[in-house]
């Protein structure tokens, strides 16, 4: 049995939830997929998948193996891509999707450095805060701001940013600062349209206890800079990442609230459809961005 191939088949079945769809993705027959899974289970002496007429589910052993398979396949693909990239000269168009605020503040200054280093690569940078389908819309690479990582694509973490609840000094002259997350229900809040938590804000205190509050929005916006500007002018309370409001906090244009409570950090990720056959220009850009943000503390939190 080709063990690496069996791992690949197993991972594909889990990812697609179907022997038939896995066979289509791997350009083989469902019978071959079934054979690989049966041989893998026989080799390991344990059942990996619970099969029913409608769906598949992982057994406990299957969950353990799936995580290990994912790591092994990523490491193999990484080694293949590095070997291929080392012998390929980067050239041609590189289409990148990036979030608006992060793209303007932290990525725009980096593009000229990359272009100078790799003059045969033509950058096509598209700014949008909505989550796009990289494959469907023809992007080679995307930058994502995420709390939970990427489940749809391969990803490499570039940096971390803290989320801070804050308001302007002028706003805080009109209303007393909240002392507990529940106090936020009495405040005017400014919401970000694409926030995963909608109108419920979640916190963890220094003892590890979780707190959540349903807030009242005075305004929604699909752009963080708009929420930031409204907050600076006294429009209400916001939570935003430090990559956007770090300088405002340092200059006291915004004041941090609820310092004893913390929101979950977010990650800045470089995401791409697959590690397999990753082009030299994509790999070089991901490495370039990772080096640009390298360090124990991100630039905006230093």
Automatic annotation (TrEMBL):
PROSITE patterns named among the record's database cross-references: HTH_LYSR
Residue span, HTH lysR-type domain: 1-59
Annotated CDD domains: PBP2_CrgA_like (cd08422)
One Pfam family matching this protein: HTH_1
Domain of life, source organism: Bacteria
GO MF annotation terms: DNA binding; DNA-binding transcription factor activity
Alphabetic keyword roster: DNA-binding, Transcription, Transcription regulation
InterPro entries: LysR-type_TF_proteobact-type, LysR_HTH_N, LysR_subst-bd, WH-like_DNA-bd_sf, WH_DNA-bd_sf
Record-stated family: Belongs to the LysR transcriptional regulatory family.
PANTHER family the record matches: HTH-TYPE TRANSCRIPTIONAL ACTIVATOR TTDR-RELATED, HTH-TYPE TRANSCRIPTIONAL REGULATOR
Identification of the protein by name: LysR family transcriptional regulator
Native source species: Stenotrophobium rhamnosiphilum
């Amino acid at each position: 049995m080709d063990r690496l191939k069996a791992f690949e088949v197993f991972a594909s079945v889990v990812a697609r939830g179907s022997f038939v769809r896995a066979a289509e993705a791997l350009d083989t027959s469902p019978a071959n997929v079934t054979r690989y899974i049966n041989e893998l289970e026989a080799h390991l002496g344990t059942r990996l998948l619970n099969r029913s007429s409608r769906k598949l589910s992982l057994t406990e052993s299957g969950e353990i193996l799936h995580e290990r398979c994912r790591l092994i396949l990523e490491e193999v693909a990484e080694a293949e891509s590095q070997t291929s990239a080392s012998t390929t000269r980067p050239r041609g168009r590189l289409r990148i999707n990036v979030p608006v605020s992060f793209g303007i503040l932290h990525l725009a200054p980096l593009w000229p450095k990359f272009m100078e280093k790799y003059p045969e690569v033509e950058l096509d940078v598209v700014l949008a805060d909505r989550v796009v389908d990289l494959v469907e819309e023809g992007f080679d690479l995307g930058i994502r701001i995420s709390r939970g990582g990427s489940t749809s694509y391969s990803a490499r973490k570039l940096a971390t940013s803290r989320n801070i609840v804050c308001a302007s000094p002028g706003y805080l002259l009109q209303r007393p600062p909240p002392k507990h997350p529940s106090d936020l229900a009495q405040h005017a809040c400014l919401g970000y349209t694409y926030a995963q938590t909608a109108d419920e804000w979640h916190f963890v205190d220094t003892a590890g206890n979780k707190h959540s509050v349903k807030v009242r929005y005075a305004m929604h916006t699909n752009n963080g800079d708009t929420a930031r500007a409204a907050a600076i002018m006294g429009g209400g309370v916001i939570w935003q990442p430090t990559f956007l409001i770090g300088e405002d906090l340092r200059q006291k244009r915004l004041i941090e609230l609820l310092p004893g409570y913390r929101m979950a950090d977010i990650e800045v990720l470089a995401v791409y459809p697959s590690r397999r056959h990753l082009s030299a220009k994509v790999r070089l850009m991901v490495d370039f961005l990772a080096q640009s943000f390298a360090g124990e503390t991100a630039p905006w939190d230093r």
